[in-house]
Design a protein that fits this description.
The structure holds 2 protein chains of 2 kinds. Chain A is mainly alpha-helical. Chain A is built from 8 helices and no strands. Chain B is built from 9 helices and 15 strands. The chains are: A mainly alpha, B alpha/beta. Chains A and B meet through helix 1, helix 4, helix 5 and helix 6 of A and helix 5 and helix 6 of B.
Chain lengths: ~150, ~325
């Protein structure tokens, strides 16, 4: 049997990812997570001395903390199976990636295990997050110096 | 031993004189659980790491199989076995505790049958008396190596499978009456149909299973019908594809009463296990548990066990390699 004649059989029989359903559950899950985040940021703004801008840091920290607890209690993977991208894309997904790797590698010790592996999955987010921020900032600097845009 | 093309026929009737199966706590949900000898209440058997848990499971299963055969561990001439962890440390460490001659075997999830075939060749050669053979897998240890951390919230597609925590071992000896014996075997060829999705191993392995079944049934001129042909861990997806391949090629006309797949049946129809079970412990626990028992009870008298293995590593698929697969077949009979 050759691969060319085999792949159509796989395409025909293997169950497809339910893309539409996945999109809807992702939208719902991501939406709920963001609504909770919004609620927390209002709490910081109304009960503490934060502005809309400065409230984002403690909000992110709180969301990651909640994700950490949910991961530790084995609940985040269940949310992930339901929500897919909806629970992976928000900052809670980043927290889950870091914390799940840290828990996993505790058996190899705190330095080589936890320290060396906790960014195994999330490292890519940091590398390309920092890199794309750099590229965007570079373009903006060029455009501002040409007088096309202004720093605002 | 007679070798006709790829078919090995054993004339001395190497006999499986005992088997033992152990499984993790989640495997209580398996439809086969009543045939398991031991079901642990802890995934790691109360040890510190998953890998230690896997090693303990192997050691316990081996000792139980030897005890059920009425032998001592010193009566075993060689242990043939393997698992899915890098460098097979769990089986290596269990072999250290058992302190008997040992050959590590790796055919991924097809190790249950490759170890049985190798053992049969050794028995047939008359150089050894008793061979301990089998394989195992431990869910957490395997998932962390091949996929993501256990607690990572990745979404599994419907084709995904669940690695079982289970082990199945048996003792193979010279011909004894009233026990299942190895009639013949086919050593599989590596088949690669250029599947690349590590979350769809069933589709990758189905052509290998098909190739081995076809080879075995073509070359075995024996007209006595098979009561059962059972693949290892194709899962629901892979098994559906295998059936389609057989329909297309006319292989369904062979004298086989029923085709089944251990992985597709293992957890019943529970949706959280997606396409079904997988792992080196899947075929081992089903073949050497319920199927062996059915042979003993003579519910079935002639079976072809076709264990399937996906020969990938996390490195190979990240480098863009396709997933080569293998299937080994062994024919067990009882008079």
């Amino acid at each position: 049997m050759d691969a060319k004649s085999y792949q159509p059989i796989v395409d025909q029989i293997a169950p497809k990812r339910p893309v539409l359903k996945n999109c809807m559950t992702a939208f719902l899950t991501g939406g709920i997570i963001c609504a909770i985040g919004q609620l927390i940021s209002y709490v910081y703004m109304y009960f503490f001395n934060f502005t809309e801008r400065t409230a984002s840091n403690p909000t992110v920290a709180t969301m990651v903390f909640i994700a950490m607890l949910l991961t530790g209690f084995g609940l985040y993977k269940k949310i992930g199976q339901f929500g897919g991208a909806g629970s992976a894309v928000p900052v809670t997904g980043f927290g889950n990636a870091v914390i799940s790797a840290a828990i996993e590698h505790k058996s190899e010790g705190f330095i080589l295990g936890v320290g060396g592996n906790m960014f195994k999955l999330a490292g890519a987010v940091i590398v390309y997050g920092v890199f794309s921020a750099f590229v965007v900032a570079l373009f903006k600097t060029i455009l501002v110096s040409m007088g096309v845009l202004e720093w605002s | 031993m007679v070798m006709k093309s790829r078919l090995l026929t054993f004339q001395s009737r190497p006999t499986i004189i005992s088997t033992a199966v152990t499984a993790g706590p989640l495997e209580k949900q398996s439809v086969f659980h009543s045939s398991f000898d031991v079901i642990y209440d802890d995934e790691r058997t109360h040890l510190k790491t998953n890998e230690q848990g896997n090693a303990q499971l192997i050691e316990d299963t081996c000792l139980l199989a030897v005890r059920k055969a009425g032998l001592e561990i010193a009566d075993i001439d060689v242990l043939l076995g393997g698992d899915l962890v890098n460098q097979m440390t769990p089986t290596n460490f269990a072999a250290r505790e058992l302190a008997i001659p040992y050959l590590g075997m790796f055919s991924a999830c097809a190790t249950s049958v490759s170890s049985l075939i190798t053992g049969s060749v050794l028995i047939e050669s008359n150089l050894v008396e008793n061979v301990l053979f089998g394989s195992s897998s431990q869910h957490n240890a395997v998932e962390r190596q091949f996929r993501y951390p256990i607690e990572y919230g990745a979404q599994k597609p419907p084709t995904g499978q669940w690695t079982v925590t289970a082990g199945g071992f048996g003792v193979l000896s010279h011909s004894k009456s009233n026990l299942p014996y190895v009639q013949s075997a086919t050593i599989g060829q590596v088949v690669d149909c250029e599947c690349t999705d590590p979350l769809d191993m069933g589709s990758a392995m189905a052509p290998a299973a098909f190739d081995t079944i076809q080879t075995h049934l073509n070359e075995n001129g024996n007209d006595v019908p098979y009561d059962l042909v059972m693949t290892g861990d194709l899962g629901k997806t892979g098994f559906a594809i295998l059936q389609e391949l057989m329909k297309k090629s006319g292989l369904t006309s062979y004298p086989v009463k029923v085709y089944r797949d251990a992985g597709a049946e293992f957890y019943g129809n529970k949706s959280e296990f997606r396409s079904g079970a997988s792992g080196a412990g899947c075929s081992a626990s089903v073949y050497f548990g319920p199927i062996y028992n059915d042979l003993l009870a003579r519910k079935i008298k002639k079976v072809l066990l076709v264990a399937t293995g996906a020969l990938l590593s996390p490195l190979s698929f990240q480098q863009g390699e396709t997933i080569p697969c293998i299937a080994h077949a062994v024919e067990l009979c009882i008079d």
